[in-house]
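Quick check before the chapter quiz. The format below is the same one you will see on the exam, so make sure you can read both the input and the output lines.
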Amino acid sequence: MHCTRWRFLLSTALLVLVGNTAATALFAEAPVDFATQIQPLLQQHCLDCHGPEKQRGGLRLDGRDKALRGGDEHGAAILPGNGQESPLYHLASGKDPDLKMPPKGPALSATELALLKSWIDAGACGLPMTRRPLTLRRLTGPTSPSSFGSTLAEARIAHHPRSVHRHPVGATSTPTRS
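Here is the expected output.
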């Protein structure tokens, strides 16, 4: 009888421990989703002043490369993996009263700040690279086929490293014997 009671207590203790571990795993923080949680937050609070049209302080937050490079004053705005030290989180949290972000309108709520910090701590994934406009460059070099020779084959022979005929294409040279 005494042994049965110990088994019961031991079994109950194991179930409680395993149950707590399983419950912790079930209720662990879900990863922050950029598209549904962070992008709307940035759109609402940040992109009017730090977006494609306007870049106050030289900072853009609409592209990963620009946000990681940062603005004129604070360096990189986002330090992936380190939300607490990221200037974006620091300024948005209002810890510095002289640099309240956003300067106009409501500050970020505690929930929004926690989301922002979790997103940065997780590596700030999902922020797309800034799209650069396509620019065309003028190619330099010969502009007409005649500068290569009369045919592509002649040009290849004349400019081949092992070519015996080291003369300009189109020039005639006849070997002379003395």
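If your answer matched, good. The helical segments are 2-26, 34-45, 64-69, 87-92, 110-121, 152-159.
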